[in-house]
């Protein structure tokens, strides 16, 4: 499945809507949106999604309906939310995490699923290959999760005297363990200590930052995770920290 095929599908569904002459008008085509974070933390990303739809001719409320569900940082809800969206028979379903894609794949084998992730979709088992994804799944990846060494290198170049760099991860996200392993390997290769700070809920932030300050880490890398959206300008952020600064 390719991007133009998804757009064509939406366009075809929209085209029949105004011409239901002599009969009850058909409902507008629905785009399902499975949001990985919270409504409050995802204002910018949802706004960008609406803008992208508009740029391809689909205006919410005019010729397309956007049906949104929020995971609220609880990965256990994904099967329930995906099934709920699929029951609404969307023309296409969008989601932003590999677990969200898997939940959607389990809910439908026919409705197109479009993703935007940071992981390798082939390695995650979401598509057969990058040039021929196959099935009903396609999408985009910036491979941010595969760039552990690069991200660490950029930060270390900014603070070359740093001997310790913290790594913040969402402990509930399946990417926490593999990404921590990759980042630790990259840190070891550079002779850098990498303390990992797992965040299980919002109450863990303050203690984690207090320990970073106490241990005088030279920088912070924030892993890709819905929980961090809205808290950081870029949830793949790399941040140098000065010893005197409160974290």
Would you give an account of this structure?
With 247 residues, the protein is an alpha/beta fold. It has 2 domains: 140 residues, Rossmann fold, CATH 3.40.50; 96 residues, Response regulator (Rossmann fold). The chain is 33% helix and 17% strand. It is built from 7 helices and 9 strands. Strands 2-1-3-4-5 form a 5-stranded parallel sheet. Strands 7-6-8-9 form a 4-stranded mixed sheet, with helices on both faces. Strand 6, helix 6 and strand 7 form a beta-alpha-beta unit. Helix 3 crosses helix 4. The C terminus is likely disordered.
Q: Low-confidence parts lasting 5 or more residues at pLDDT below 50?
A: 11-25, 242-247
**CATH-assigned homologous superfamily of the largest domain:** Response regulator
Please list the strands of the largest sheet in the order they lie side by side. 2-1-3-4-5
CATH topology (level 3) name of the largest domain: Rossmann fold
Q: What structural class is derived from the secondary structure elements?
A: alpha/beta
Indicate how many domains the architecture comprises: 2
CATH architecture of the largest domain: 3-Layer(aba) Sandwich
Which percent range describes the beta-strand content? 15-25%
- Could you give a short account of the major beta sheet? 5 strands, parallel
Number of strands: 9
Distance between the termini: 45 Å
> Helical percent range?
25-40%
Number of helical stretches of at least 4 residues: 7
